[in-house]
Amino acid sequence: MNPSSTTATLVVRHQVHPQHEQRYETWLHQTIEAASQFPGHLGVDVGRERHGDVLDFTSVLRFDEMQHLQLWLESSARQWLVSQARPWLQDGDNTEIQLGKDFWFAPREADQAPAHWKQVVVSVLVILPLSLLVPVLWRPVFGLAPWLAGYLMSNLLITLSIVVLVVYLFMPLATRALNPWLSADTP
């Protein structure tokens, strides 16, 4: 597969001392707004964790292709923004690029990913209601357009609707809302 046509995800990890939290939050809002102006930008999710005297921020930026992510990553706008925040960052500007997948659970390190059972619970909490609701919402359309109501076409439309809602809306919301539980040190 051509890397330029593959979804690209940038994970940015920053450690911030609590005395700079408000300044960093303002900076983060400005950075998200700036990134959203770049071509191919698909969205940003931010996770926040507190570890003693340090706040860990994990920002997951998604772009439609690697070329667009590179435009943002190498832009003078991002360079200027990072230079503004650098005095507040305890461990610098740590970035990681993932190609070909939009992932929901962005661990700090591979051994710190949420427990598999937690990932299953969150996935069920997101997918089960949609799998019950989406077919009901499509029913009136199938009544008006019987050619869409066939077994293959109706399942294709229902599955596509659920996948799009999970990937772009509900899973990012759920992982953000449940981040403290997902990152808690339970087996």
TrEMBL record:
The keyword Transmembrane applies. Gene3D superfamilies: 3.30.70.100. The keyword Transmembrane applies. The chain crosses the membrane at residues 120-138, 144-170. It comes from the Bacteria. GO terms for molecular function: monooxygenase activity. This is Antibiotic biosynthesis monooxygenase. The lineage of its organism: Bacteria, Pseudomonadati, Pseudomonadota, Gammaproteobacteria, Pseudomonadales. It comes from Pseudomonas benzopyrenica. Keywords: Membrane, Monooxygenase, Oxidoreductase, Transmembrane, Transmembrane helix.
